[in-house]
Amino acid sequence: MERVVPLLKAHPEFNAAVDGEDVLYRTTFDLGFAVDTPNGLMVAVVRGADAMDVAAIGAEITRLASAAKERTITAAEMRGASFTISNIGAVGGRFGTPIIPYGTSAILSIGRADEQPVVRGGTIVVGRKFPLSLSYDHRIIDGAAGRAFMAALIEVIEAG
Description:
Elements: H1 4-10, E1 16-19, E2 22-25, E3 31-37, E4 40-46, H2 54-70, E5 83-87, E6 106-110, E7 114-120, E8 123-129, E9 132-136, H3 143-159
């Protein structure tokens, strides 16, 4: 999540929503993430992710995921995401077409990481690769902007 926030700042249409005839560009970075629970999928929201370091984001994800699985999460903790991440790889999924949650303009789906041959420094080695899927609201984001966001995300991931 910490790597997504700078991308959302650089591509504000991905942190926006359609409200009637208007586009609302958010200045907060409240990131939703999907949680697989015994009662079905729930989306919890990490509020103010832009003001948190990696450890704080991790702790909040752990807290919210536990609350969702234990059915103690509040409705407020599941509302108001400005962007959502779904890790379908955590439940064995490879590829998926994520559905854009109401009130957001985009969702990122991360598939299962598998060992595959990759080229590093001109040599073929075993590496881990995973598919990414990005769905976005075409009333706000066109294909070129979607591709630019995805290219920037891949660059950030590959930079480590």
